Amino acid sequence: MRAELARVLAVQADRVRATALSQLERTREGAPAPRAELVRRTAQALADLAAGAEGHPRRPLPALALHGLGDQLAVTGADVLAHGDDAALAAALRLVLELRRGL
Q1: What pLDDT score was predicted for residue 79?
Q2: Phi, psi (5° rounding) for residue 42?
Q3: How confident is the model at residue 31 (pLDDT cuts 50, 70, 90)?
Q4: What per-residue confidence (pLDDT) applies to 27?
Q5: Residue 79, SS3?
Q6: What Rg value do the Cα atoms of the chain yield, rounded?
Q7: End-to-end Cα spacing for the chain
Q8: d(CA 24, CA 60)
Q9: Please, where are the H alpha helices in 25-62?
Q10: Chain-wide mean pLDDT for the chain?
């Protein structure tokens, strides 16, 4: 599970980094929100999972500029990878796969 999450997370973070900023601002047909918002929501959910795994309170992530979203996704995912149990890893994998469908 950990290896699969690491692989999927790396691919999606790179995909976000490579996406044109104008595309991040747009909503893909059938998606519930603009791509940037989907990335932000996923990063926040990953941060929440990591905080729970570490026994820390949840905190809102800073709203980064569009060009920083791929890194924010990578960092919050790395925190889950480092501290998450099997349940957290499974939840994180579902979140990242859902993001993939929204992008």
Answers
A1: 97
A2: -65, -45
A3: confident
A4: 94
A5: helix
A6: 13
A7: 23
A8: 21
A9: 35-54
A10: 96
